[in-house]
Amino acid sequence: MEIMETEECLEVSLPRLDRSGLFSKTIIVEGVGLARPLEQTTCSVIVDAKDFPASSRQYSAETSLVFTIGELDGEQDLFIDKCITTMRKEEVAMFQSNEAFDWFDRPCVVTINLQHFDNPPGWPLLTNSQKYEQAKQHKQTGVELFKQEEIKSAFRQFSRATKYLLLIDKGLDVPGDIDKLLYQCHLNLAACQLRFPSAADHVITNCTKALILDHKNVKGHVRRGQAYLAKGDYSAAAQDFNKGLQFNPNNKFIQNLLTIAQNGQRAENKQLSSGLSQMFT
Question: Which residues of the chain, if any, have pLDDT below 50?
Fold first, then answer.
């Protein structure tokens, strides 16, 4: 049997959300061919995961499951997906995580039999319409997950939607309002990142990208202003909140945020003034 170490990292660019998970893989039965499953690949597998917490896929050592890699965003499902992407057709392998996870209090062991899979067409083979529809689907799934407070899973869906949109060739027939869907995805990414203070710079980046596409977007100015507040940049925050009020002047929420930013500015100015006066007394 061949034993190899594989370092896998979940596809999340958020600070505090990405986690590298090192697992060991023991090949029990060699696979055939060279191809391995990709994102959006439909697989037929048997997963012996009795050492695993419950999953919506209901893994079973006796029953073959057919599912698509990347369709679910539960942490245990992502772990299984990552394991499968290292396998070849008809391969049987045992995977052991080398650390406990947020969803499991100890390292886990699973055995996977990859019976069959069909890789989807590569990015260049997808039409603009197919990319657009995939983006809409991922974005809508992300919205539903966000409502359920599944923030990390929602973030992944919005990220996937953004990738599909950025791959659309605007020189060909465009299936819909790509720019609108794209700035919505950037704003949704920012909404996820706002939950984590250390991700303020990423919020600013995504909101700025959204505002390039729609400079009057109130959510873009408000969320970027909130990120500046988190960084203690009260002047920049106040500018964004004032912009938001320019387009939505009666919004009490933005008015309250502007007051917080202005109070922060005054406190900073007072502290600076006090420091300068002490230098010359």
Answer: 1-20
